[in-house]
Design a protein that fits this description.
The protein is α/β, with parallel strands linked by helices and 296 residues long. Helix content is 39%, strand content 20%.
Length: 296
């Protein structure tokens, strides 16, 4: 009888420990710790105040804790930071809610590449890139890379798909609180699982709109300052930053902004839209006309 009583007591203590370990307040503390270590803006007076506020509250439920984490996350990581709930994480893991790129060749040989967002696995990323690479002629008068409505995802297959039009191996840099690191083309090709092909020299026009975001903006910055490239359309969404997912106790993910994009020019982009070279409501038509008038 004594053993049974002790066993029941032990189970109760263990249950209490698990409950306390997964409490809403612990959830907030773990999230704040992650932000402290990794958040791009998790320093200074604004973050000190947000951190103190988050830790001073004793949330009564997981929902309340998640709201506190979201509020603090916007300070630690900026507008690109968000909380992905556990059911959303599961849906994303099995999602095929993305489309393949397309390539169209006009009568005069100008190539138009539609580059949509991508969120698939590695094999799918290889297919994504090869869909473009295998359809590109070896010689062409110019190319239009359409990044309109590209809201992001995995940038490596996107860059790999159009890498033949990038002449500089130093694509852009990611700057965190602690360091700045180049993203170079050989590394991108390795991550994408694609063999590198020779550079194609021709005018490159890029199309953007208000939905060009995140990795879509990173692809855009790979062409920034190249003298043969020009951007047409509208300013981008202003999410030119690097996010990293961190797992929280309930299976949700804190998708935290840990770095900002720095162009090869030294310009820093993060929460600011990237302006096109030519603002226009007819970007495709204007881009094609520019290519035809370059004389190359």
């Amino acid at each position: 009888m004594m053993k049974k009583t002790l066993l029941i007591a032990l189970v109760a203590v263990l249950s209490l420990a698990v409950s306390c370990g997964d409490s809403p307040r612990t959830y907030v503390r773990k999230a704040v710790r992650i932000m402290d270590r990794n958040g791009l803006f998790a320093e200074g007076e604004a973050w000190d105040a947000a951190r103190k506020k988050a830790l001073s509250v004793s949330p009564a439920s997981l929902d309340e804790a998640q709201k506190i984490v979201c509020e603090a996350g916007k300070v630690a990581g900026g507008k690109h930071t968000f909380l992905k709930l556990s059911d959303e994480v599961s849906e994303d893991a099995s999602s095929t809610d993305w489309v393949m790129p397309s390539v169209k060749v006009l009568e005069d040989g100008i190539v138009i590449i539609q580059l949509p967002p991508f969120s698939g696995n590695r094999d799918q990323g290889v297919n994504y890139a090869l869909t473009v690479l295998e359809a590109i002629p070896e010689a062409l008068p110019g190319v239009v890379i359409d990044l309109r409505d590209n809201r992001g995802g995995n940038m490596y297959p996107m860059i790999a798909a159009v890498h033949r039009f990038i002449s500089d191996d130093n694509l852009l840099r990611f700057r965190t609180r602690k360091n700045t690191q180049w993203v170079q083309l050989p590394f991108v090709m390795q991550e994408a699982g694609i063999s590198r092909s020779p550079h194609i020299e021709c005018p490159v026009a890029l199309l953007t709109n208000e939905w060009t975001a995140s990795s879509g903006e990173a692809v855009l910055l790979c062409f920034r300052s190249l003298d043969y490239a020009r951007v047409f359309g509208a300013p981008t969404a202003g999410y030119a930053s690097a996010n990293q997912p961190f797992l929280l106790p309930d299976g949700s993910q804190l998708v935290l902004t840990t770095g900002c994009d720095v162009a090869r020019t030294g310009e820093v982009f993060c929460d600011d839209p990237i302006d096109p070279d030519v603002r226009t409501e007819t970007p495709l038509e204007d881009a094609v006309a520019w290519i035809r008038n370059t004389g190359r």
